Amino acid sequence: MEAHVADVLETLDSLGIERADWVGYSFGGLVAAAGAAAHPARVRRLALLEPGLSLPPAMCLQYAHEELEDRSFATEEEAIADMLSAGTIFHAPREMLEEEARTNTVRGADGRLRYRYSRPGAIGAWSELAGPPPPVAGAPTLIVLGERSWVEVDTARHPDARVLTVPGGHSVLWDAFEETASALEGFL
Predict the structure, then answer these.
(1) How far is 112 from 105, CA to CA, in rounded Å?
(2) Residue 87 confidence (pLDDT)
């Protein structure tokens, strides 16, 4: 986690930005929260979208094991069907799912489509997500949660945060784009 936070700070430094609003989704929410806790002077406001602040270790282990399986698809349509069958996306416009399948899959030597990400890196991320949550930051905080999400956030740990629940699941930027964008715009 320290390396991810250091990367964010290095990027801000390279751009000459001393203090900024930090927004993080899922694992990025954990990175943003950890950065805000460790470097409060660098964070003006903190927006956490479905943040993975501390997930049950058994669940993280299950998901890490699933990363060892080869998930591939014959077509983009098959990739979309797989996304929908997971039961975590509820209201996303079909166009968003089509764009996801089109832009974030690559065809392997065997002719099958696979998502473009590091499976070993994802296993490491699941380990981080299973750890204890970072200390609560002092910056003004917005937490956006999906009403049907599998991510649980102990909002009582953040008594001063504005907490908003939007329709859908974990993918708040797909299931509830307008609500999430409006909340971010109003907060930032």
Answers:
(1) 9
(2) 86
Residue 82's pLDDT is what? 95
pTM of the model: 0.92
CATH number, domain containing residue 164: 3.40.50.1820
Q: How many residues does the chain have?
A: 188
Q: Is 43 helix (H, G, I), strand (E, B) or coil?
A: strand
The token pair at 32 is 């943003």
Q: Would residue 24 count as lying in a domain?
A: yes
Residue 50 domain flag: yes
CA 159 vs. chain centroid, Å, equals: 22
Report pLDDT digits (tens) over 90-145.
Answer: 999 999 999 999 999 999 999 999 999 999 999 999 999 999 999 998 999 999 99
Q: How far is CA 133 from CA 27, 55, 72, 173, 182, in A?
A: 12, 9, 33, 23, 27
Last residue of a domain, one of 121, 141, 174: 121
Distance CA 75, CA 2 (A): 38
The boundaries of the domain holding residue 160 are: 2-54+132-187
CA dist., res. 114 & res. 76, Å (int): 10
Whether 44 and 31 share a structural domain: yes
